[in-house]
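Q: A small favour: would you put together sequence and structure tokens for a protein?
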Amino acid sequence: MTSVKEFCVDEPATADATGRGRFVFTDAYSVFDWGQMPDAIPHKGASLCTMGAFNFERLEDEGIATHYRGVVDPNGAGRSEDGSDDGDGDEPAVVPLDEATAPPTEMAIDLTQVPDLPYEGPNAGYDYDAFHEAGGDNYLVPLEVVFRNRVPVGSSLRRRAAPSDFGLDAIAGPDGEWPDEPVDLPEPVVEFSTKYEEQDRYLTRAEADRIAGAADVEALESLARDVNRVVTELAEAAGFVHEDGKIECLYADGELRVADVVGTFDENRFSYGGRGVSKEVVRQWYKANDPGWVEAVTEAKAAVDGREIDDWRELCEESPDPLPDAVVEAVSVMYAAGTNVYTGREWFDVPNIETALSAVDDR
């Protein structure tokens, strides 16, 4: 299980062929790379599955290759993956999203190989040669490709670059710093970061090219820009601003395909009427209300440098507090109401998004 999704294998991938499997989206959540947090957010898993499927189907309409196969209808209607009509075969019934009779929590996907990434200690680092030797020409690319249309409050780009790096000198403060409000970028920015290392690490293009293996870094960037364009257009049509996001990719048969899940309130940051609609609202809650844990996480991540272990959580002496019930409810409704608006279908019986965001503001 990942921190928020369970992973089911129906047919394993091999060195020569992709397999078949499913993501099962849970209501768990993770912030600051902690892993599963102490409570759950109702509707969250179904919201992410529904938004992800909606975006994958729009990407496929645009000719963008993905690993998506459909969703599992919660009521069992549709055609099973083994070809039977009633879903009574070895694999559950899979349908396009618009044929689902309720918000789905399972997504059918193509599988690729995910080799181990050995950690060889602070001097040698991670052994990507071993990863690619095991993956051959059929593997999940060990990178996250990040795209940014805006620099919102909380964006890591504020720590790593100055407004002048993007020709935004006019909006910079006296010392060249970012202003307190979100800033639109003149052109989307694409960056690369690690995926399987214990701490996400932003990379130079040369580093990303080496870590990508047989996959071409230019093709990865082009694919990310195409995905960003589609998600941005879908967001605008629904009244959202698409601020930033990421993709992950598999490489199989000499082709890149978009993998994992795309364009959800966990993977991407959106705003609606000037207010954030994403997991960022939970991050900001912890920064404001559980700063001791947030500081302990930051210190543990720094302390692991130069050690033989790479899991910083072993060094973290504090654990996160659960969210108050009122915050859980407000965030739950935000996910569900946002999904309704984004997809143009009333999947969830919740207040409208304006009411939902007002409730988040009050928490």
The chain has a mean pLDDT of 92. The longest helix spans residues 217-237. The longest strand covers residues 240-252.
